[in-house]
Amino acid sequence: MKLNGAQILLESLLKEEVDTIFGFPGGAVIDIYHQLPNYPLRHYLVRHEQGAVHAADGYARASGKVGVALATSGPGATNTVTGIATAYMDSIPMVVFTGQVPTRLIGNDAFQEVDIVGITRPCTKHNYLVKDIKDLARTIKEAFYLAQSGRPGPVLVDLPKDVMAAEATYSYPSKVHLRSYNPHYEANIKQVRKALKMIRQARRPVIFAGGGVIVSNAHQELTWLARELQIPVTTSMMGLGGFPGNDPLWLGMLGMHGTYAANMAINNSDLLVSVGVRFDDRVTGKLESFAPEAKLIHIDIDPTSIRKNVSVDVPIVADCRLALQSLQKELEPHLEEEDLAGRFSSWRETIQGWQEAHPLTYTPSETVIKPQQVVETVYELTQGEAIICTEVGQNQMWAAQHYRYHQPRTWISSGGLGTMGYGFPAAIGAQVAFPDRLVIDIAGDGSIQMNIQELATAVCYDLPVKIVILNNSYLGMVRQWQELFYAKNYCSTCLERGPNYVTLAEAYGAEGFRVSNPAELKPVLKQALSSQKTAIVEVVVDPEENVYPMVPAGAALNEMLLV
Amino acid sequence: MRHTLSVLVEDEPGVLSRVAGLFSGRGFNIESLNVAPTLENGVSLMTIVTEGEDQIIEQIIKQLRKLVTVIKVVDMNEVQCVDREMVLIKVSAMDHSRAEILRIVDIFRCKVVDVSPTEMALEATGDRGKIRALINLLQRFGIKEVARTGSVAMRRSMQFEA
Description:
heterodimer, A: alpha/beta, 6-stranded parallel beta sheet, 17% strand, B: Alpha-Beta Plaits, 5-stranded antiparallel beta sheet, 4 helices, elongated
């Protein structure tokens, strides 16, 4: 059967079990949009291509499936770049299709032409320009395979207009042949045994988990390991939800805005069992002083993560889940006789002392709402059952600290790239993946304005996303740095005369709420969260509240500012 | 330490920029890079000479292997290998210096590939040390131009314990 390129693309998406696309049309992709109504694919028309890619990303993080975005050539394509880089840094499976000018015009500086394959080379797992329709089906197959196998990541496929219009016989390959790409999943049993030996010799072990646990769906295995051996657990921001936030072994997040107990535990540990982490600078602080007494076990599927920043005693290159299963299998028969859990009890007491001495805290006020209190109230009202998306900055850190995540994929936030404007479109994607769940974007007044146009998308598709804006009329995190390290020179961080968010919401057809009195916080939030519509809750918060604890950039983890 | 990496890649558009972009984007250093087809259709061999501490070299190799279009990476420092580069040197050659230059050509087993009343172009192959020695020796006559290929390397058939 002969099909044109657009039909081959859409048929192939069905073969990949795609049912949802986020996109925005344009000249170079009209052929695809022309065919789209003939296929059982839900297309969500966004208002900016960046929104499409973040939505596909949020969809992928919430569901574990591959996110798919579609944009036109030139500016459409360049608008996807921030979203692609965001997904790349956080290892999110995604395939982005961009239109391209006809092949005969490529390189001629044609209208809306840009070398998007060149531009995205450093921020995709891989990318393709399809110049011949004969390569189209195979390329799509490879793109989906690459996006979700090994360490997942975004793949971009650039589709020239004439290739979409050309015809070819369609057959979708059943297998991918890439001689140069063979991800390794199984853990080497010798390494697993070495790791176990180290755990048996440890006195002060800590489990340090990251995004790899979420990606590989290893939370149950991780929880089993921690609970059976009674080893305290901390996670990076990307690992939130990988271990129940209400478990007594939970230390909270570590790093720059980690808890006192988590950072002190790392600092005093003699063994770090690190699972699916990459030791980035926000986690380690000053590298030379990171976990100075600890031996390191490092499980990660990506060999480049290992020994990139820290030296490792037992590297295990494997899928986190399979590696933890392998550990469990080796450990299980000896659990009772060994009583490792008992051996670590004095260590747990030490940690408990740190937890009691410096819990996450803030000073409540009767006159002004504290941002931490907003997050706590959201937690109280949702009992940890909501999907929380965040923007970037103080809002993100407070959401990470003061909400407790019990399940994986309930925390959706731009970790590596730190993309302001991510949270709201990502929340749209998460809501599309789970129409019946409560999806909340915890935002700042700075970040929310970066992709506010997506209110139209949310309203059009009746997506009841809730946006809770912690409005401090500042770019709060930068202001905090200016206050602490730049002599309070608040240059360009004051967001005066912001919009009226209530009427803004209403202008888009969403519901708007505003609260500034601490006594009214809970009832207003309750009302907003139970709304069936897209809603904004503008919470006017203490403008100069800071995120604590804080490890200044470049300092060691035990050099925290506590207030 | 300087390392020579043999990198087998899929010969497709953009592969060079993927490799070069990896080096520049991650702040790795490329001293020389040579790329040419192999006997196998669709496969090219890159020889990259780079410098860095062990941990950096390890990262470079792993990052190269992570590229989807890279088939194989061998650190030639881990094996015994032959490595050679070729150089073309245009040197000022006046009547009084011509004989001396030809003696050097003879000692270094170079070839004279072009000649004019005032200049001579020499072709030489050898490892890095030899090329450097040759250039040093010729400098006093006045080198007008140098074109170098960068290193290519091949594992020796017989490997001996170090």
